[in-house]
Amino acid sequence: MYILITGANRGIGLELVRQCVARGDRVGAGVRSGSDTRELQKIVLKHPDHVGVLHLPVDQQALVQEAALHAAQTLDALDVLVNNAGINPETPAEDTFGALQEASVLHVLHVNAVAPLIVAQAFMPLLKKSPRPRIINITSEMGSLADKTYGGSYAYCMSKAALNMATRGMAADLRKDDIPVVALDPGWVRTDMGGPSASLSPAESVRGILRVIDTLTLKDTGRYLDYTGRDHRW
Amino acid sequence: MVTALRVLITGANRGLGLALVRLCLQRGDHVFAAARRFDALEKLDSGGRLFPVPLDVDSGESIAAAVDTVREHAVGLDLLINNAGIFPRAPAYASFGHIEAAALREVLQTNTIGPLLVAQAFLPLLHNGSAARIINITSQQGSLQWKTRGGSLSYSVSKAALNMLTRVMAAELRPQGIIAAMIHPGWVQTDMGSANAALSADQSAAYVLRIVDRLTLEDSGAFFNYDGSPHPW
Question: What is the ipTM, given to two decimal places?
Answer without folding.
Answer: 0.97
